[in-house]
Structure formats: C-alpha cells, structure tokens
Amino acid sequence: MSGESQGREASCQAEESVSWKQCIICQSDDDKKGVLVQHPKLESYGLVLQAVQERASLNDGDYVQVQRRLQNCTLETLCTEQAVWHRSCHSNATNNDQIQRARDRNAHALTRGHYTAKKRGQKRGSTEIDDPDLSTFSFSSPFTRSYTSPLNKEQCFFCQKDDGQQLYQVRTENAGKHLKEAVEMSHNTALKTRLNTCISPGDAHAIDVQYHNVCWRKNVFHALREPSTSTSKTAKEPFLQKSSLLELINLIDVETQNQAYLSMDDIETTYINMLGSEVLETHLPAFSRKWLKERILTALPHLKSVRQKDRRKPAILYSPYACEEDMVNTMTTTDKKKEENSMKTIYKAAQVIRKSIATFTKERNVLQVSSDITDVPAELYTMIHWIMVGPAEK
User: Fold this and answer.
1) Per-domain residue ranges for the chain?
2) pTM check: above 0.70
3) Which of 87, 284, 296, 302 is least surrounded by Cβ atoms within 10 Å, i.e. has the fewest?
C-alpha cells in the first residue's frame, strides 16, 4: 500500500482500524458468508455509508461499531481502497424493512425512556442495541416471573400484605372472570404474572386467591365500572345494537313517507323489541329515549320533532314533505277525541256487564241481561258470555 493510501486509512480510524481486504461491515472473510463482492459500483458505496450512519444513529446493534470504523471515510476513500463486502452483509445493512424496524424501536424506546436488552446467554441479532457508551438510556430485561415476588396465597393478591385486615376468597367462576378482565385492563405486569400461576387465567378460584375488600373495590370493581372515552364506547357498541338501530332508521324513513307521523313511544317500543331485554341491559351508552331521538334525527335530518299539546304524551316525528305541523297537531287532537269516546263506550258497557253479573244465578243456564243489551258491543258480550257460561252447546 502506498504512503498516500496509508494516510487515508489512518484518517479513517476512530476507535478501530479498517481491514480493506475483508468485508468492511463484518470485518471477516468467512467463506460461509459467501464470496466477497469485488469492485462494487459507486452508488453502492454511498448506499452502504448512508445505511450504516442511519442505523448507528438509531443505536441499532452492531452498526454502532461499524460506524466507528467508517465515520471518517468518504466515497472516494472506499473507491480508492477498493472496499469489499459480503453480499449478505450488504443486503442486511441496506434492507429497508430492517431500517424501518430500527426506526420504530428507537421511537418506542424514546417514548418509554429506556431500551430493551437481551438476557445473558441469548443470541444477539444484528438489530439489537449494543452500545455500552450510551449512558443516556437505562437498559432493562424483559419482564418475567422471576422479576416479581412469587404469589403468597396467604396474603392479599393485589397488595401482597398481611396487615391484619380480613381476607376474602374468590370462590366463584364469575368472580374469577371479573378478576381476569380487570387485570388485563390495568396492564399491570406483576398482577398478570401472579394470575398466570392458574391453569387458566380466569380460574382464580382454583388457586384460592384472597383479597382485601378495599383492594378488590379499587382494582376490580372500580376498574370495570370506570367509564371509557366516547370513542372507545362507540367502537365497542354491540353488533346487534348497530344493526337494530340501522333497521329502525330505515323503517322510520319509509313509514314517514307513507303516513303523517310516528310517536316516539311507538318508536322506542319497536327498538326495544328488536334488541331484547338482555342486549338492552348492556346498551352502550345507557339507553334513553333522548339518545334514541338524537340518533334518529342525526341519521334522518329531514325529519322534525314536535311536542304534543298534552305534555304528558311523547314527542311526534314527522316529515315536512308528507304533511305540515298543523296537520300533525290536528290529527293528534282527533285521535285524542276518538280515544276518549272509546273509553266512554267501554265504561258504559262495563256498567251493563256488572249489572248482568249481579243478577246472574247459577241455577239458570241462560244469561239474563237487561234491555240495554243494545248498548253492549257484541264482541264484549260474547267474550263475557263465554267466560261465565262456556261455549254454546250444539
């Protein structure tokens, strides 16, 4: 090697020297890695330098050490020294997927404030962080069962203390399921590790888990009842709830085009029948007529809501394209009069029936009714006659 070449090699030294006859990435000529690529293109040199520099800045495994060797080298230096490498080393160093994973790991580590290192005895890959001089970040091993104290069944499952307070025991499968759900929601690795001593994570009653009442309320009861954000609630809406609401909205859209109005009372009853009582109990958010009306008016903005004159009655939804508000008020008032007339007829018929019952004797097999029989609806008289006397004998 000429004196000028030796000078350039000396300038490329940071903490370690570079052997130009070996692969500049792994610094070996191992035949198992394949034949060394001779006389690479100028673009390839630049790509290698750029990839090594970026991966070293991301603290990506062995590339920190590679960057120390090449930090003062330029394209001209690599061309002049005719730098070589293994095809596999070049492929790994410039692989876009590996570089992106290194970026993601570095971003995640910065948010958490530490990097994750391999345990002793495990093989370290090319993408592992290995830089003893990085004092800025603290290194921690993956959380395992050995990193937490073993579960003491004689103490509280949550606080692992015996302060003299009464301990209660998980005795039912339902309580075990609630415990499992709360532990998973808490993201507490220590509690998850303790719960994994069960054959099944939801089988807490099988290992005689004990707890303080205060700890249970704090870690299970309140954790399961704690309201989540509106976004997560919307995402967790049951499928049946969504499909029922969609079907109801389509039904209302069709009905309001064919008739004048729909009562919120009828709409609510229809929606509840679609859901069923079990789904209604787990409705997200809690079911109310106000919520239902808001969802309907949001989906069908052309509909309008009007209050009836009798404030005790529910609101009315109608389409302005089918009728005017005055028509709705007129029809609701007419319906009210018809309802009152029907009630008067029922009361009058009831008086006649009560009179007939009072004069009825068991010895007679014929129902004696006053001359006011014409005031009794035929259907009502037939029903009462069938109940008291029985079906007519042929």
Assistant:
1) 3-103, 143-226, 236-323, 335-388
2) no
3) 302
